[in-house]
# Entry
Amino acid sequence: MSMMRQAISEHCQQQWDTTIQSAAEGISPIRQRAWQRWQQQGLPTRHQESWKYTRAEQFFTEPLLNNALKKTSVLPQKTGNPVIADIKQLSASINLDLIHKAISPQANSVLLYCIDGQFYSDQTNTSLFGGQLGDVSDPSLFIPAQDLLDEDSDGFALLNLALSPETLQLSIPADSQLTLHIAYIAARAGWYQPSVRIHVQPGSQLTLLEHTVSPADLSVSDSLWNSLTQLHVAPSAEVIYVNLNQCAPSCQHVHQLLVDLDTSAQIQSWLAALGGNASRLQIIQRLAGRGSSATVNGLLLGQGQQHHDHRVVFRHLAEETKSYCLHKGLLAGKSKGVFNGRILMTPEAHQAEGNMYSRNMLLSQGSRMHTKPELEIYHDAVRCAHGATVGQLDRQALQYLCSRGIASESARQLLLAAFIQTLWQSLPKPLYEWLTQQVTPSFASVSEQMEAI
Amino acid sequence: MLEIQSLAVSVANKTILEAIDITINAGEIHVLMGPNGVGKSTLTRALLGDTGYTIESGSLRLGGLDLLPLSIEQRAHQGLFVAFQHPVTIPGVSNLQFYKAMVNAHRQVQNLEPLDAIELLAQVKQAAKQSGLTEDFLYRGLNDGFSGGEKKRNELLQMLLLSPRIAVVDEIDSGLDVDALKIIGQGIRHLQQQGTGFLLITHYPHWLEYLTPDQVHILLAGRIVQSGGVELADQVANQGFQAFAA
Amino acid sequence: MCAANTDLQQHLQQRYSAGFVTDIETDTLPAGLNETVIRQLSAKKQEPEYILNWRLQAFQRWCKMKPPAWAQVQHTPIDFQSIVYYSSPKSLADRPKSLDEVDPELLQTYEKLGIPLYEQEMLAGVAVDAIFDSVSVATTFKDTLAKAGVIFCPISEAIQQYPELIKAYLGRVVPPGDNFYAALNAAVFSDGSFVYVPEGVRCPLELSTYFRINAANTGQFERTLIIAEKGSYVSYLEGCTAPMRDENQLHAAVVELVALDDAEIKYSTVQNWYPGDEQGRGGIYNFVTKRGLCAGTRSKISWTQIETGSAITWKYPSVILRGDHAIGEFFSVAVTRNYQQADTGTKMIHVGKNTRSTILSKGISAGKSQNTYRGLVKLNPTATGARNYTQCDSLLIGDGCSANTFPYIEAGEYSGTVEHEATTSKIADEQLLYLQQRGLEPEQAVALVVNGFCKDVFEQLPMEFAVEANRLMQVSLEGCVG
# Structure
């Protein structure tokens, strides 16, 4: 094993030892098993197909490894949910107003903060997290995360399952509506592994925003997010999911989203990877119920030396299931983008349909994009298609805009925005505006790093 | 030639047709009319030999031969032709390639040598002319990029190539303009004179000005409620199908 | 040595017309692979020392390697020590100088396979280098080619007669260390074709080779090298067939193509290996490394393949587009049925400027087979202005089979354009119904639709092969309609 891997392995072992010491009631069997598997499997290598283009070691930077381990402190909790603390417990050194400004939450949304791995909520919404929202009615409804992951399990998921102190569990009541905005913030350097599990009950509608953000005043040295979110979407329930990565430049970000869809359940996801140094987002969608559907609209925007890796998997396990994925990569500077897509049609996926498109633009010398959309079909009565393209900004379009008097800088940004436009089209209007507002500033710096054409 | 006797047909355990009786002799044109949903397409499927449809009772004979135990292609070999309402598209297989396969499949059953390529092309071109199709379509994929009208003309072209004993024509007039109707009508008359018997299935009486049917049958609720001459078609044109509901 | 398991014979269908065994004495080495065997092999072929050394070095490398395990393919591990690595018919100890001198039974074998050498001569003017197991039997038309300056001979002969060319090009495109089977091949390659087309020459004949595996437990290790000098053109056809066997046989060939400035090489394969019976027993393991190097400016290499045989197929004919404005093409139809497994595709590596590649792959799976397309399109940072277009389509027949598509697109150069599309479909019931109503038997109907599906690829084949390909498809899909 290389020195780096050795160091990482030791660091993880230390985390595990610390965890055992501080766990009052012992470690659950699930966590034990995850740890054992981690010991066998270790960090992903390039030989694992889904990690072919991304070096797993890069997520553990030297400063991170050298960072002294912190004991997880126990905060007085709010009544209701055992995992969420009162925001008033937060250290005075953290400026909540600035955070709020960076997040720019929607009017009707419920805000949850995950600061340095600990969940907080502010006063006005605490009642929500008591009562019904906090009660995950039937834990057996959740397929164990390890099983949901199945062959897509990797070292990072195992670390989260083993080392994550407590899972935030929520249940969205049947036939209700909720917008939940979770802001992940690293105020201090460190390694954070939050775990969220949400049961979206029959007929209900959940809008979930998972937003990793770095407010301006927090100059943080290296941190690593290794988070895992699991959703069980009950019959006829709907989820709108947005994952926005606006990490600080010294931050590494790994996230797994596991979705289990019941009969006629639906999920639509929007992903945008803008920040951080290296990021990896894996979405596993299990279309287990007849007539369930999943769509993913994803974007990775690379600048400087960034490395963004998105992996989107649809497993069609039932009749008349539908999936659709449109993924776009824009790479400038010397950044590198990776897209791994997979559509699996099992023998039960009668009359299922899957479409996946990866559209990418390389904007400068030294930028790279690796795209690998895959089809695995075990049933003949399905409709499946995929496409992948890599190209550049349309020179003719640029010339046209310039000929109409538009400065080339603005013209480039216009075309970049247009390229991404189709991704946001089907978002509900308020979300569309919010997301556009968050993403657009990045175009300016991307545009600067483009080659002149 | 074609004898349908007391034919009852069900699909998915639901009886659609009950005791259908029609006899079509060589060179006769029979028209089957009825509103949507009465079972016209079921009859087409039953005659075709689609195994999704169950023959509950009755008989079906062509030239005295029992058709019921025969597969789709076997019935075709006996001289039955079905012109579809929505002909399929098979891209990558050119129209000419398809005609060759079709003609030679029939010839093989008759113990004839495959048709010479030049002779086949000549016959196809002649049939194309009669169907109002230009020659450039020959090398395009089967019905690929064809309008509805062109697809129907392609059905006629095939009939002209095969000269079937009996042709079942399912709603061929749907989606056709006046010129196309005229050509189809002329084509059918031409074949009729050569001895082909026709069962024209339609719910629209007006296009019959191009043809003189020998018999018109009115189908309602799975039964033939009345059979008669062309005056029945006029009645439908003037009063609709309610006139026959009793 | 030629006795086949009679119980198994009862199971096997007569459909495979090439399923018989020629009863001729062969001169074989004992099974197993070690340095001694390699020395003996080299000695039997009377090879000069430079080749023996090359073999031994390759063998050393092979000993340190492991068989690849990443393909979507399952098979019982191959015992390399139980395979015989050399077999040749005794009557060829002294090479025949004309067809008249060839063992009549051998020639009969070839007639049964449908390649009567005399008829070939008249009809298509095709030179045939017919290989019977590990030694070439006859090379016809050497004279016609010699007049044009084209060299077309067994590689064993080229090793003796053209050492400069061999030393310059052998192993340049597929080095022995490239992969496990390439190393194995370099150590024990038995024979194969050598083609050299001089500058400016358009090869007057379509060159062709037929292969055959005969003796039990003989892996076939063919090695082919084709060199096209500046401004030249050559079209090469490879067609294979093998008898029924009850133990799996290994086929690990290496084909290297080199095209210099403005040269073009067209390499077509129609493969008809024994696929294993309906229960998936027997059948050939086909692990082949084929690679073309577009070394020169405006050079062009096209691979066209129709794969319908072998129990397991693992091959990725590739093109390295090094010269500026080079063109690489890959056209493929891969059919699998019963329990066959195919993991095949191509690699297009763009290195030079303004290079182009086109990939057209059609996969047809039936029965309980597995058909996987695996392709790589790689744009190196130096490949300014590169263009790729890929179209992969899968057709599934029946519900027990599978079709997989795994494209790898690695774009490291920002002015290139890569376009990849893939679709999966089945033959619609309505399509079959329609064709049946027009009198076609169900199998004829399937054959017609499949033909339409593969049309774009068939159009790339040289005419003689196009006919054989059509017949082959029909035979391959017999009994698949349910």
